[in-house]
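Quick start: what a row looks like.
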Amino acid sequence: MRTLPDKITQLTLPSGASVEVDGNGYLTNPEQWTPEFTRFMADQENIELTPLHYEVINFIRESEADHGVMPDVRFALKLLAKRDKLDKAGSKAALYALFPYGYVGQACKIAGMRQPRAWSTG
């Protein structure tokens, strides 16, 4: 768990819309999420979004909306494994091919989730 408080800043998107992000670029309020935020953050992370990226992002967002918590990486891995008939290692490789800096480091940030506090899954 962090010992220092987050530095909250206003991030202005290309359209002029403004959202609050923490010091690491995660939304402080996932309800401020927009598709523009996803595109902007993907650009910041040097990720060119594909339909598969959006499938993972939408899975994260829908799962959080349905269950009230951001899904753990194992559920995203199951999604990829089932979709592409991959084993555990294959689904992990597929996820890191999409998001090279990891599930929490990129996928959850781009999906507009808050930064997790007490756990990290890659």
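That is the whole record. Residues 9-110 form one domain. Helices lie at 35-44, 51-67, 73-84, 88-98, 103-110.
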